[in-house]
Write a structure and sequence with these properties.
The chain has helices at about 5-25, 30-40, 45-55, 70-90, 95, 100-110, 125-140, 155-170, 190-195, 210-215, 265-280, 320-330, 345-360, 375-380, 385-390, 425-430, 440-455, 460-465, 470-480, and strands spanning about 115-125, 145-150, 175-180, 200-205, 225, 230-235, 255, 260-265, 305-310, 335-340, 345, 360-370, 395, 400, 405-410, 415, 420, 430-435, 455-460. By secondary structure, the protein is α/β, with parallel strands linked by helices. A 15-stranded mixed beta sheet has the order 4-3-2-5-6-8-1-9-18-16-15-10-12-13-19, sandwiched between helices. A two-stranded parallel ribbon has the order 7-14. Helix 2 (about 30-40) packs antiparallel against helix 3 (about 45-55), helix 6 (about 100-110) packs antiparallel against helix 12 and helix 14 (about 375-380) crosses helix 19 (about 470-480). The protein is globular and about 70 Å long.
């Protein structure tokens, strides 16, 4: 028998089936084409790469987020959320009403309510975030829920750990979710200590050798703390000493990041996200109750800010964070300020920004001078020419590494969260962003943005186009893989 010929025929048939699977299963045309080219022109490895990194979990829903099993009760809750959001909207000012389409999109897609009577505090860098976090943890009375992509066993990590242990001894329920890849350093040290002292700790999507690469691809990038159902923290700052800047140590890399504290009804959707993730990774059926979701009448009114949470991942029916970003850009009429450490826009985001700029909207994008990946840097820079030609201003942060993920539109709405402006955050990772419909908060975040520009270098289109042919070729080549990054 002619075995080489038989193997070639078998391989060809398998390749055809894989190509059919890619076309059928991959939502984005650019990504579908990238996987097809890789599978066809890189024998075997290309197909393995697709099944490792490219399977569309959104079409299969990694897990159900249904906390309430009773359909009748679930329908009543849905109606209650709609009525509450409508009431909030009707009582809101022009800032919210001019962004009705954005609020409605998030509500309809994820049932995330538009909430009022919130207190909002912006926190710049770890040295400003962690004192607030430590104090809030110490004041916990009933429960503490913590979910982090990176949680390290260093000074700040152990400081938080000690408080959690003390609160557990006092009878406070402490639940801790850590990403099994991002927080891999605590698996054999901190986690066993916590468990032995009364803290419930579970990894998110535990990495196993047989499914190693696939599980590495879908990570929980969220940073959430919920305390007693009324106080929450969300944003870009992980639990690590690197996020705390010490001006007495000028040799240390300066880390610029942004976080948010919410007190009020806006906490409840973050609580919902945590409980869904908890039931998935702990394989428990933790039921919602008044301890986790205090009645609105019992929550102290500590502010007047209106906020809404946008969250997406392989567990959501659509990339709602991407949709929210696009909607916010489309609604902007004056100015858009974006900060992102990894800016690798898909076609829809790139087009939306260029259309806004060409239509007269001022668009400014702040990115790091250098990220923590040279490959990513090449991909990011490949988009600069298109953006600059549309009149978009690009600034490279030079003081250190800017890790904040924020957007301000028309000094009316502020978006702060965990999602980068790239396909990984929009399609693969579990992410969460908070949207604040408030001029005061938006102006405060805008002021932070302009302050960061003082430590940045603006790109000049003429100078940028003087790059060597080799440099441009490398960037354009890496850009071919940008849908996979």
């Amino acid at each position: 028998m002619n075995w080489p010929l038989i193997l070639q025929i078998v391989y060809l048939l398998v390749l055809i089936l894989v190509c059919f699977r890619i076309i059928y299963d991959t939502r984005a045309n650019a990504k579908s084409l990238a996987y097809l080219l890789f599978a066809i022109f890189v024998p075997v490895i290309g197909m393995v790469f697709y099944f490792t990194f490219g399977v569309n979990y959104r079409t299969r829903r990694m897990y159900s987020k249904k906390l309430i099993k009773n359909s009748e009760l679930s329908d009543k809750l849905r109606e209650k959320i709609y009525q509450y959001s409508k009431q909030t909207f009707n009582l809101s000012d022009a800032t919210v009403q001019s962004n009705e389409e954005l609020a409605t999109l998030i509500l309809k897609d994820t049932l995330s309510p538009l909430t009022s009577d919130n207190s909002i505090k912006l926190m710049v860098n770890g040295e400003n975030k962690f004192p607030d976090v430590l104090e809030a943890l110490k004041n916990a009375k009933d429960h503490i829920h913590i979910e982090y992509y990176i949680f390290e066993d260093n000074h700040i990590g152990r400081e938080i750990e000690n408080i959690l242990i003390q609160k557990a001894r006092e009878g406070v329920q402490v639940r801790f979710i850590y990403d099994d890849f991002g927080s891999r350093g605590i698996r054999k040290t901190m986690v066993p200590r916590m468990r032995s002292l009364g803290i419930q700790a579970f990894p998110f999507f535990k990495i196993r050798f047989i499914t190693l690469a696939n599980r590495l691809n879908y990570r929980n990038h969220r940073k959430i703390i919920v305390i007693d159902g009324i106080t929450a923290f969300v944003g870009g700052i992980n639990v690590s000493d690197r996020y705390i800047n010490d001006l007495k140590k000028p040799h240390k890399l300066y880390w610029r990041d942004t976080h948010l504290r919410i007190d009020g009804p806006g906490v409840q959707y973050l609580q919902y996200l945590f409980l869904c993730d908890w039931n998935f990774c702990a394989e428990l059926e933790l039921e919602p109750n008044d301890r986790f979701f205090p009645p609105l009448s019992s929550i102290p009114v500590s502010g007047n800010k209106i906020t809404q949470i946008a969250a997406s991942g392989p567990d959501s029916p659509s990339p709602v964070i991407l949709y929210a970003v696009l909607q916010a850009i489309n609604l902007a009429s004056e100015e858009i300020l974006i900060t992102s450490p990894y800016f690798i826009p898909n076609d829809s985001l790139l087009d939306a920004l260029c259309i806004a700029a060409l239509g007269g909207v001022i668009v400014k994008i702040l990115v790091p001078m250098k990220s923590d990946s040279k490959f990513v840097d090449y991909a990011v820079r490949s988009y600069y020419s298109d953006l600059l030609k549309a009149g978009i201003e690009i600034y490279q942060y030079s003081r250190g590494f800017i890790h904040a993920k924020t957007m301000v539109c028309d000094a009316k709405i502020a978006m702060i969260g965990t999602a980068n402006m790239d396909s990984r955050s929009f399609d693969l990772n579990f992410e969460v962003n908070a949207i604040v419909y408030d001029k005061q908060v938006a102006n405060e975040l805008s002021a932070i943005f302009y302050k960061d520009l003082k430590d940045s270098v603006q790109l000049n289109e003429t100078e940028w186009e003087k790059r060597s042919v080799l440099q441009k070729f490398i960037e354009k080549t890496v850009r071919l893989f940008s849908p996979l990054l």
